[in-house]
Amino acid sequence: MSRNLLLISTSTTHGTGYLEHAEEEIKALLQGKSSILFIPYARPSGISHKDYTDKARVPFEKWGISVTGVHEYDNPEKAVREAEAVFIGGGNTFVLLRNLYQNKLVQALQERVNKGMPYMGTSAGTNVAGKTIGTTNDMPIVHVKTFDALQLVPFNINPHFQDPEPNSKHMGETRDTRIAEFHHHNRQPVVGLREGSMLRIQGDRIRLHGPHTARIFLQSEKPMEFKPSDDFSFLTEAY
Length: 239
Known about the structure:
By secondary structure, the chain is α/β, with parallel strands linked by helices. The protein has helices at residues 23-29, 49-62, 76-82, 93-102, 106-114, 124-127, 175-182; strands at residues 4-8, 35-39, 66-69, 86-88, 119-122, 156-158, 190-192, 198-202, 205-209, 214-217, 224-226.
């Protein structure tokens, strides 16, 4: 499998512009490409597809990459099958997944990515790259017929992963707790991606980029911290 993916926790970190913190990794992913197809279906804060695409267009044009929105095409599936690369932005994961199925893009994306087309996602766009969307932080504001996602990787991801605040008086559930609950019913590993972190996947090789470690959760085991220099390849042989 010739996968070529960049899965980013968030599109913007504190003190940086849109996608600015991932510029180096994005340029490496898109080396030799002159265009990218943007899928704005997640619609953060209800933003229109046009306005979301216009926002995404700004940094890419600075990098010499032209951007078109999938909604601009009469046949979205054909647009995916002919794209040089695809970027799925963040927003609500349930809205995004429903639209991917309704527009018949799931199989097209799977086939293109498995043949080497560069794919990048941020937040919800990273969620849907996993096995299911069962570890999203988003509210289920729309009904989806299945939690099955694009399954470009055989594990789940929890973008925006947050550690418990040691001095907080909050008595509610932590991300660790919720992921442990997920693992009572599901076997696949979960990667907790902190803000500013991203996974670069080339074939069966997985590398962590960014300033933080990643927390990896395996069913019936204690969570583990992994550094960028660690070997993540076992995740490609997940359930």
